[in-house]
Design a protein that fits this description.
By secondary structure, the chain is α/β, with parallel strands linked by helices. The protein has helices spanning 17-26, 43-49, 85-111, 131-140, 143-146, 151-160, 168-177, 199-206, 225-235, 264-277; strands at 2-6, 31-34, 55-64, 73-78, 181-184, 212-216, 238-241. Helix content is 40%, strand content 14%. The mean pLDDT is 93.
Length: 280
């Protein structure tokens, strides 16, 4: 079995890349994709730590905008060249935009009489400080409790309005330019209250050049994979799948890693697509 959607401490996971690789090997996985959010910094450690019988697929999960909406669309990339200059520049631009966003929100917090410093955000597991870290920081440091009436909600909305450095089409293009294939991550989360979207629902989004859609994804109860296999077939695209594991364990010590029954043939089809995009 394989797992093509896993996060590490390079973004918002709880395990280091080497620890994730070790856990995957213990579970008998034959392949693992490291898909940290908007960063590539965990890939070298993961590849170096992998035993000979475990393939580490270089991947990423890019946070993109679609039609100017604040709701993010996540784009998974597989078999990417992590040294791609264009991809590196785009990811650095995303980080700079987020840094300016964080500084602007912290400034508004100070003007509202609150106390929250950039270093206070470092303890949260994220690729770098962003909207989620700001919200957690405001909650844990009493910013919202002490804010003037009506200010707390304004600060929350401001923190959540994260800038997007690339559109869906740009993210797919960057992945292709880096020699990879692009898959739409967890479509079940795209529309609140509607986990099973149809091919017709997804067609406008997939028209941006996606090669695949994530069929095996973390849906409570484990259902939905068959539906998205049919959607992918109707759209004429490949499928990907994974646990979206972040290293969190249940009280019994279980973790998501390797919990989705993704067959190895899925990876081989994605590999062939990547080779075709590179011209052989």
């Amino acid at each position: 079995m394989i797992d093509l959607h896993v996060h590490t401490t390079a973004s918002d996971g709880r395990l280091s890349p080497a620890e994730v690789v070790a856990a995957a090997a213990e579970r008998g996985l034959s392949a693992l994709a490291i898909t940290d959010h908007d960063v590539l910094s965990g890939l070298d450690e993961a590849v170096a730590a992998a035993p000979a019988n475990l393939e580490v697929v270089p991947g990423i999960e890019m946070t993109a905008s679609w039609h100017g909406s604040q709701r993010a669309v996540h784009v998974l990339g597989y078999f990417i060249d992590r040294n791609s200059p264009e991809l590196q520049v785009a990811l650095q631009r995303a980080q700079r935009l987020m840094e300016r966003h964080v500084d602007a929100v912290l400034d508004q917090i100070r003007k509202a009489g609150g106390v929250l410093q950039r270093q206070d955000l470092d303890r949260y597991r994220h690729r770098y400080a962003g909207g989620a870290a700001l919200v957690l920081g405001m909650l844990e440091h009493g910013v919202l409790r002490g804010a003037p009436p009506g200010t707390g909600m304004r600060l929350l909305r401001l923190a959540a309005a994260e800038p997007r450095a690339y559109s869906v089409g740009e993210a797919v293009g960057l992945i292709h330019h880096a020699g990879g294939v692009a898959s739409l991550a967890h479509p079940a989360k795209l529309k609140r209250g509607e986990p099973l979207l149809s091919a017709e629902d997804l067609a406008p989004l997939m028209a941006h050049g996606f090669d695949a859609v994530e069929a095996w994804q973390w849906i409570p109860g484990g259902w939905g994979s068959g539906h998205y296999l049919g959607v992918a077939d109707a759209l004429g695209v490949l499928v990907s799948g994974g646990s979206d594991d972040h290293g969190k364990r249940t009280t019994e010590g279980a973790m998501r890693l390797g919990a989705q029954p993704v067959p190895s043939a899925v990876l081989e089809a994605l590999r062939e697509r990547a080779l075709a995009l590179r011209g052989g």
